[in-house]
Amino acid sequence: MEKLHKINKMKFAVSEKDQFMEETTPMNQYELPSPEKKPEYVKSNFDHIAKAYDRFNDWNSFFLHRSWKNWVVKEALKESSDPKIAVDLCCGTGDITARLSRVKSFQSVTGIDFSENMLSYAKTKLILDNRVKLQVGDAMNLKSLKNDSVDILTMGFGLRNVSDLKKCLSEIKRVLKPGGVFVNLDVGRVRPKFLKYFADFYFFKIVPIFGYLLYGSKHEMFDYLPHSAKSYPDQENLKKILEELGFHSVRFTNFVFGNAVGHVAKK
Ligand SMILES: C[S@@+](CC[C@H](N)C(=O)[O-])C[C@H]1O[C@@H](n2cnc3c(N)ncnc32)[C@H](O)[C@@H]1O
Q1: pLDDT tens digits, one per residue of 124-149
Q2: Beta-bridge mates of residue 176
Q3: Which has the closest alpha carbon to 78: 154, 160, 169, 158?
Q4: What's the domain of life for this entry (predicted)?
Q5: Is residue 258 part of a domain?
């Protein structure tokens, strides 16, 4: 009888833990900012951590983000015919902008971000001229871009940081030419489920420590970054959202069991 009780207790503990991990994974006390506070929170905190951002990416992805970013540009070129105008939204320190700038057939490559400090690091990777530019701008209000004016629009780890994902995607659709291509790289949901437990432990417990070490002290942005994935749609849902907004030929590719995901969508 006592044995049965013990087994039942164990079963309960496991199923309770399952639910806990899948739904919320609250591995520390960090709370995401509200949508109203998010833009200022994200902007000022990226300004603060800009100096550590590139090495943080290298460490937390075991340098893999570099090849995912190559993939972004490769897919964008594959889906376009004779593209001339490319925009890298939420360009941050300019990794994808720099890759786009190396495509000599582009007449114009523009990196846009609202964090001036992140852009100051992007400057060091680019030869800025009439063809390659950086702009301070808001991904949810692309004032500088006309309707139907862009052939290729890329975004790397930016979409989960905007406060209104659908508004941002609608802006992207507005500025793309008919037939233009959007390639988005961001985090995804890890499958199978048993791997998700390891991935969550890594992202919520280990990744912030890399950030603190590189930055030189504790900074909540390194907790925000993994937690921001929790309010971001999984790969299947993001595909659905893109289709609902009128994008077509939407597909996605998982990297490392869905830790990162690249979506390709056409207008
Ligand atoms: C995680 S970083 C990604 C940087 C770069 N794309 C990369 O892949 O390494 C996210 C960037 O998005 C920018 N960002 C977030 N929300 C934005 C918005 N509404 N408008 C413009 N930039 C935004 C941040 O300032 C930050 O530089």
Answers
A1: 999 999 999 999 999 999 999 999 99
A2: 150
A3: 154
A4: Bacteria
A5: yes
Instruction: State the burial class of residue 202 (Cβ atoms within 10 Å of its Cβ: 0-12, 13-18, 19+).
Output: middle
In a domain? residue 62: yes
Residue 94 placed within a domain: yes
Q: Cite the DSSP H helix spans in 81-206.
A: 95-101, 116-123, 165-175, 193-201
Pocket probe for ligand 1: among 114, 142, 144, the residue whose CB has the most ligand atoms within 8 Å is 114
> What is the identity of the amino acid at 241?
I
161 lines ligand 1 (CB under 6 A): yes
Tell whether ligand 1 has an atom less than 6 A from the beta carbon of residue 262: no
Total count of domains within the chain: 1
Domain with residue 170: its CATH number is 3.40.50.150
The per-residue b/e assignment along 228-247, b for 16 or more CB within 10 angstroms, e otherwise, is bbeebbbbeebbebbeeeeb
**Cα–ligand 1 centroid distance for 67 (angstroms):** 19
91 Cα–ligand 1 center, Å: 6
State how far Cα 106 lies from the chain centre: 24
| Domain of 260, in residue numbers | 38-266
Give the pLDDT confidence of 27-69 residue by residue, as tens digits. 567 788 888 888 888 898 889 889 999 999 999 999 999 999 9
- CB 138 less than 6 A from any atom of ligand 1: yes
One-letter amino acid at 204 equals F
N-term to C-term CA, the chain: 64
d(C-alpha 145, C-alpha 228), whole Å: 28
The model scores a pTM over 0.90: no
Let me know if residue 66 belongs to a domain: yes
